[in-house]
Amino acid sequence: MIQIPGVKVMINIGALMDIPTGTYVTGLYGESILNGGLGGVSGVVGIGNNFKSTIMHYMMLSAASRIAESTPTSMNTYDTEVNIHESHLLKFSKRFPVFAKQNILDNKIWSVTDKTIYYGNEWYEIVKTFLKEKKDAIKKIQQATPFPDRDSGKPLMIPTPTFGEVDSFTLFETENVAKMQDENELGDSGANTMHMRQGAAKVRFLMEIPGIMGSTYHYMLMSAHIGKNIEMASGPMPTVPVKKLQYLKNGDVIKGVTDKFFFLMSNCWHAFNAAPLINQGSKTTEYPRSPDDNQHLDTDLNTVSLRMLRSKSGPSGYVIEVLVSQSDGVLAELTEFHYIKNNDRFGINGTLQHYSLDLLPEVKLSRTTVRSKIDADAQLRRALNITSEMCQIKNFWHHFDDGIVCTPKELYDDLKAKGYDWNVLLNTRGWWTVNNDKHPIPFLSTLDLLRMRKGLYVPYWLTAEQKSKLKT
């Protein structure tokens, strides 16, 4: 009997979404690889104006950019609401270095279509054709992951990951339902079965995609709307709404998706409580883009709460806060900074006005400079990623042996005392990709840094000269 792969491959996406959804897997060189972030089928739900589409675009772009660092990939968005502006998507893509110097819409890395061109069933058939061709060519597009194969011990091989979105699944419409709408006026009995037919089509779609897309490593994301559940009273006693998900507010319902939507998601996020992030003293944005960015009550930068409604790879019910720019999309590293600042200034030293990170003490920061310095300094971005993941490990996980978890200051001092060069350690990446050990930037996870402090791991990619300087 053929067994499934020992690892359900998830792709790291950052912005605080990897640690809570993931687990560490031991790689081929003894390294610790975080298998978390974007799962096979992911959902982002919420009421209007809570950036659910922007967050979903970020998830796909972040995952795709990390695969594209090593091999060409593709993305597809099906817009059921007919309101996507490509200029916004292009600007979001520029946040990722691998996409920054190209127009990924014009060169068809990211293709966008909507229901003015294809009904939902037509779009789905095109996707199935693409995935059939991908499956037929699977031997030609195999890529090595850093995860070991359960039988051979060699790299687990997967076809090149590709990505798709439906924005939103609530308004996904098939041709037969559209025809019923055209042929019947409002109130006509001929349209009575319209919603039943649409629901049946959505159920079929949701039942098919795990197998079709899972076998080809096509990662699917869907957004959906949340509304109020209006129960019609059938007797003298009021009807109590049935909660579909434990962490969904009483009376809330995800509109037009069927119950299969809840069951098949790898991870389903609820975006809520979006609000401009305004400094209460100056009444300008909390983290300005530059010293000249001082517009009164600027609404571009927003906080958005994300609650994990359902997860198959981690806990549910927790909330993280993501920072979203209306013009630039999700700001991953600024999100990580905001998180550690609000967690008792974890890994931050100095005064409330002037400070630095314990992992990068030479870079001086303040509220008004941190955003621009993040954009300009790769080492600062890396230090923030490590610090925020250390903070999340402390907050979310309680299964490590005593002594592994420590403060950033302890990590910095102890690794320096062992002979490690922090300039080398910060010129790394914490996310995996296909052909991981061939990437020009070496891989080093947060857990590996913690293990290095305890003498449990030495990076396999260190040069002989770098290893000779280490103190045992």
Structure notes:
With 472 residues, the protein is α/β, with parallel strands linked by helices. A hairpin with a 2-residue loop joins strand 16 (355-357) and strand 17. Among the domains are: 23-235 and 242-269, P-loop containing nucleotide triphosphate hydrolases (Rossmann fold, 3-Layer(aba) Sandwich), CATH 3.40.50; 396-468, no CATH class. It has 13 helices and 17 strands. The relative contact order is 0.14. It has helices spanning 52-68, 86-93, 120-136, 175-183, 194-214, 260-264, 332-342, 370-376, 378-396, 408-417, 422-426, 446-453, 464-468; strands at residues 23-26, 32-35, 41-46, 75-79, 110-114, 142-148, 155-159, 162-167, 218-228, 252-254, 267-276, 301-311, 319-325, 329-330, 348-350, 355-357, 360-365.
Q: Indicate the CATH topology of the domain at 23-235 and 242-269.
A: Rossmann fold
User: What integer value in Å does the Rg equal?
Assistant: 24 Å
Share in helix: 25-40%
What is the CATH architecture assignment of the domain at 23-235 and 242-269? Answer: 3-Layer(aba) Sandwich
Give the SSE string.
Answer: EEEHEHEHEEEHHEEHEEEEHEEEHHHHHH
